[in-house]
Amino acid sequence: MERPTPLSGFPEWLPQQRIVEQQVIAKLQRTFELHGFASVQTRAVEPMAHLLAKGETSKEVYVLRRLQAEEGDNTDSGLGLHFDLTVPFARYVLENSGKLQFPFRRYQIQPCWRGERPQEGRYREFWQADIDIIDKDTLPGHYEVELPLVIADALRGLPIPAIRMHVNNRKVSQGFFRGLGIADPMEAIRIVDKIDKIGPAGVGKLLAEQLDATDAQVKACLSMAEISSPDESFVDAVRALGVTDELLDEGLAELAAVVSTAAAEAPGLVTADLRIARGLDYYTGTVYETTLDGFERLGSVCSGGRYDTLASDGKNTFPGVGLSIGVSRILGALFGNGLVSATRETPTAVLVALPEEERRRDCDRLARVLRTRDIATEVAPAAQKYGKQIRFAQRRGIPYVLFPEGESGGPEIRDIRSGEQTPVDMDSWTPPVADLRPEIRAGE
Amino acid sequence: MERPTPLSGFPEWLPQQRIVEQQVIAKLQRTFELHGFASVQTRAVEPMAHLLAKGETSKEVYVLRRLQAEEGDNTDSGLGLHFDLTVPFARYVLENSGKLQFPFRRYQIQPCWRGERPQEGRYREFWQADIDIIDKDTLPGHYEVELPLVIADALRGLPIPAIRMHVNNRKVSQGFFRGLGIADPMEAIRIVDKIDKIGPAGVGKLLAEQLDATDAQVKACLSMAEISSPDESFVDAVRALGVTDELLDEGLAELAAVVSTAAAEAPGLVTADLRIARGLDYYTGTVYETTLDGFERLGSVCSGGRYDTLASDGKNTFPGVGLSIGVSRILGALFGNGLVSATRETPTAVLVALPEEERRRDCDRLARVLRTRDIATEVAPAAQKYGKQIRFAQRRGIPYVLFPEGESGGPEIRDIRSGEQTPVDMDSWTPPVADLRPEIRAGE
């Protein structure tokens, strides 16, 4: 075949970048588990009917077809790749509800696919790391406060810029528009959601054209969308606009609880931002978006919200709340700007040098001894001159070369950075912790 | 939506089974890294032209189409889901050859998709765990010996039945058929590969019908296919059939090296089995298949081989050798037969009991203290009676409940298995290692 070229929108990482990704994912995983979330993985495909019922991304779905499917064979017709992890998880909960304990805390780290036009931060295949809590019949509001704190905990300590979470509540927007007398509050939410793209004037025009909003109504909607505060003061700002509605009251109380708890437990993390809407139709309460300091242009790197009716089979309803970290979006930006890398491109800590090909089995045994002490070790590919074997280690950042027989007659270990070579006790030697595994660090 | 039902061929695990899968994959990963393999992940899709060039599974490929692709928009036409991890990896190596160090040792654990008829051990979506070593221009034969030993190391200690690896070499089959005067040796390999399905008589019939093989040739082919030995004695058995061919000699020497080294380093692991062929066209040297004791009916649970020309762009060639563990096939069989499970269905080791909803923030802080010592902790969902909170922990197998204020006035910890409850020092208490995380065990 010809030398292949990358596919736009389907990023792949080099081994050193993959080590960063692995360690980031391991940190997320470990934190989620420390908070009691169990891992779930769902199949990559869902029935199209299920995918198409769930909001605006449905138009970007990839549909599957078996290459050799015979005429009339519909076994796999109507399957598409999932575009997020929330819709499959809601289906998994419904399907297995008799075998799960509720409230059910799960995390899920998998790729998703959307046939969108690729651009910075937007891929056609991308990894998401989701946490959700789903309960039966009712879901206590305290989970809407808990999830942002878990996310902050998960990202803490990673070489990633600070995050800011922008939070709103669908009930606030919907109640406000309803109290204001707007004909179609859900459509108003979708229009206001475009404010970052088309600006306040554009939003005002759409509200007037599509929903017959009066000048006063447009003005109130735009004032509401401008409200933002890191504390509960947004409540007074909304009240000052003079709209009253029961759902609005409910939403304001819920949003105030999220913002005030977050302000106490993780100062600077959460801002009430009444312009936030989220495109997906299934949200019914708190909605979250997250920006990465210095990378606001990427859009949200961690989004989600509360969904009360997504997982329902008519008889039973499982309301949930979830947040989803855009792993590929974050890593793509960090790699693209040279902001994070790994100390080497291989797990190998020690290369066993090979004096001659006939000694390979002996060298394998030395390697095995080190592996029993959790030291990643490989034997040199060929019995080249030692200088060449040392350069092979250097090129890949392997910190140590073990010589089976040094000048001392026994095995010697060489630190390839200092060039220092010393006799080594095979039954006790171990490298410093910082050399044991590749580590991730800021910068290139 | 209606209550959903499982999709045949797309297995999903319950949380407790997923914990088993996670720990099995973690063991594979850790072992591969100890042997110096770096992780790579490739996108799920490949150009169809690339997938279709690579042998018999191509007919089972899933093709993608964007739901809303407009007439004449061919951006994603011609993409299909990969059916294995070898073909994508060969493409990755060609694409990135200037940025990789050779020989390149990589592992890759991802799902693959094939539109096959689902049956026991055969899924339409399944996880594979692959190791490969790819070099530039030439690849030393010692890697064909090394890989089976790495696999044995990776599966050791897991609650999985013993494996037996059946090894052959394409050069042996091809050289033997050629030396015998068979017109199309590659076609003869494909026919003999069917011996398990259609029996020796069926194979003989096909050889005669399709390749005009004489009775003597058929007899020699079937005698060759019956040869099997755990040591080098297979060489004499082949010689006794009286066929001479240069390629056959080369293959016998290579296969003898694999079998004799494995016999010395891992007795019982490898058998030379001259009936093994592998369906895929890209193998050129050693080929491997692996059976699981007691589950021979599943077919191979770890297959692979040497491929000399798969990764080639005309100018440069990157020969490789690889082995692929069928993770879903093995786990599906173990789960289906109740042979392995986890000690609980959640990572949570401690549930903090909640005396009243107003105390939630205090309880969160207690949980945080435990998490700093790596103890997975969650706070009770609601301030129910303590009996109910204890039962909530019991149902999910959480071993400990922490009460913020016991009779002693301070926090107390209760082991829910013994019912014993004792005052606890929040700054030092930690559960026994066996309770810290769910563990996997044989049986249900």
UniProtKB/TrEMBL annotation, chains A, B:
- EC number(s) recorded for this UniProt protein: 6.1.1.21
Q: Region (Disordered) spans which residues?
A: 407-444
Membrane-spanning parts: none
Q: Which residues form the Aminoacyl-transfer RNA synthetases class-II family profile domain?
A: 103-355
Any single Gene Ontology cellular-component annotation? cytoplasm
GO terms for MF:
ATP binding; histidine-tRNA ligase activity
Instruction: Note the Gene3D superfamilies from the entry.
Output: Anticodon-binding domain, Bira Bifunctional Protein, Domain 2
By its UniProt entry, which Pfam families does this protein fall under? HGTP_anticodon, tRNA-synt_His
Domain of life (superkingdom): Bacteria
Q: Which GO terms describe its biological process?
A: histidyl-tRNA aminoacylation
Concerning PANTHER family, the annotation shows: HISTIDINE--TRNA LIGASE (PTHR11476:SF7), HISTIDYL-TRNA SYNTHETASE (PTHR11476)
**What's the subunit arrangement here?**
Homodimer.
The UniProt family comment states: Belongs to the class-II aminoacyl-tRNA synthetase family.
Protein name, entry field: Histidine--tRNA ligase
Annotated organism of origin: Phytomonospora endophytica
